Prior knowledge:
Two copies of one chain form a homodimer.
Chain A: H1 9-16, H2 20-27, H3 35-47, H4 54-61, E1 66-71, H5 77-92, E2 96-101, H6 106-118, E3 123-126, H7 136-143, E4 147-151, E5 161-165, H8 167-180, E6 186-189, H9 196-211, E7 221-222, H10 228-239, E8 247-250, H11 254-266, E9 276-278, E10 295-297, H12 300-316, E11 327-330, E12 333-335
Parallel strand pairs in A: 1-2, 1-3, 3-4, 4-5, 5-11, 6-7, 6-8, 8-9
Antiparallel strand pairs in A: 10-12
Helix pairs in contact in A: 1-2, 2-3, 5-12, 8-9, 10-11
Chain A binds a DNA duplex through α2 and α4.
Amino acid sequence: MKNKKRTTIYDIAKKLNIAASSVSRALNNSDQVNEATKKLIVKTAAELNYKRNTLASNLRKGQSKTIGVVVPFINQNFFSNVIAGIEEASYQKGYNLIICQSNELQSKEIKCVNTLINQHVDCIVISISADSSDHKHLQNVLDNGIQLIQFDRVADELETLKVINDNEQASLEAVSHLVEQGYKRIALLEGPQNLQIFRQRKAGYLNALKKYGMPVLNELIVENAWTKELGAKGTRKLLNLAQPPDAIFASTSDFSALGVLEVATAMGIKVPSELGICGYSNEAFTEITSPSITTIDQFSVYMGKTVANLYFQEMENKEETAVVPKIISIKPKLIVRSSTKKGG
Amino acid sequence: MKNKKRTTIYDIAKKLNIAASSVSRALNNSDQVNEATKKLIVKTAAELNYKRNTLASNLRKGQSKTIGVVVPFINQNFFSNVIAGIEEASYQKGYNLIICQSNELQSKEIKCVNTLINQHVDCIVISISADSSDHKHLQNVLDNGIQLIQFDRVADELETLKVINDNEQASLEAVSHLVEQGYKRIALLEGPQNLQIFRQRKAGYLNALKKYGMPVLNELIVENAWTKELGAKGTRKLLNLAQPPDAIFASTSDFSALGVLEVATAMGIKVPSELGICGYSNEAFTEITSPSITTIDQFSVYMGKTVANLYFQEMENKEETAVVPKIISIKPKLIVRSSTKKGG
DNA sequence: TTGTAAGCGTTATCAA
DNA sequence: TTGATAACGCTTACAA
């Protein structure tokens, strides 16, 4: 089975006694070929079960019609949604996707990127891993003439196309909402500060406090609480303070917020009356917890489509003077649910 | 940026005044090349920022070290987990993944498969779409000398490698569990019967009833209830029967089970005392609903790894006589939670 | 409209 | 151990 030889354009050419170039032209639907022979060629190709060898075609044309995607984990809701969005838009344009996961490890991320460069992908789409420090490998992508698009978690010092969420604004709105509901001591569960997105979310939190003239209390800010377990741990610490918070903004994720909710429930603290909770990401489960969790929707599938379309636009304009915006910011949406409805 | 010419082995050869073939050999770490020159070549390659053109290499070698994956939706938990598993195992072997989604449409599935054939992938891994009827396109994969592995949703009449769940056994256990908890009228929410997995789950349900000498009541079997909405709709119908069921096995998915739970809650029916609910898939949310939902874990990441490793084993044995099992069945695990704990 | 031939960047074969 | 050369299957000037 493995060694079956495939039909090539030469086989078709030989059978019809014409030149391979004509076959190629016909199969590419060129208009420089007689309609009748074109039909004949297409028919024969089908009969012989011909399949174009994209490898050869791409090699010759110097492009692969392939987009490489690198994400920390394929099976995390946000990323799988973004990928689905990229796939949808790419498929329409006849592009393929090669997907890699970095497992949040810079070392693996580098290998993934190199593989994609070797594969001659036309574009690399990446959301950088949590432990990434330097970005030589990304610079390398550019040096190899490959378009680079960063999304969500971006290295801001690198001048590439970017599609991001307005994390700061979203966080500002979330915390403002908490304030307006009457919460007075609002805690923050923050993520690794080497990632821009988490710095931005913290900035939004601080801005909101400032806006309402509320003090920043360091004891209410918990570092590195971006899993359910770490969220729960941070919450236990917070709720055992002499003056515990009356609201927690789990800026890292809904998983973290879930950790908060579970600890609060276990401690007999009522949500939202005694403790308000706001998460981030609009994971499916936030709708069905008791109470349901207020969170922020990032329009992840749309984000994926935006990434892909940004690439296609950039391609179309590549030799024109038209200026394409380098950074697209998507405004996330605050979704208010029961976990923060204190004020009614 | 786009037109930057990449370094080729000829550039390296020219610079060092040696033949390209030697460069190729050195870069492939062949032992037929002088250690000293090998080192020199590798060093020069790094200096010139050489990246192998995998396209050319694959074309020449007649293999792509790429596995194509076709799933209904990338962003469904089960599939994204399987993909993550495939990725992990493939990465270790130096294989790449090209991912497509069929959107449950046979028409798109066919296009995806053809694209993958054109891409000369070495192996196609597929879980067929819900509306798939015939399988010519899959036969075509085999005819093109490409290894085909089906997983989860398989076309049984096609003799390929398969990795499946023992759906029948799992369903049997689930329904048996319901019976043993004291439920007397157990309803079934079934999925599209053109998919083998749903036929198997139904068979497991019927077997369980038979095992306990319970009658099969057609009014308790609801067709095509495989989304949350359809599950909810089916549940309303069931609970409004003159003799409503006291347990519902949502064999299609946890989403369906969630629909059941929401309707029951809305109607003031107590779970599990008045109604037992069992889902399928062990989605993350089943753990955090009130009450938590009994379900069946399919070991999806493990399934993905199994798929990839099956391919690699098959490759290694391809010219040996060793017989590799053609079908690997993974035994799912019943996870008992609050929604069915009637008997205590 | 069709054919000829070169070339994409590798690797494999053969010879030196 | 190294070099020259053909070939993988396709596309594209250029010529006919």
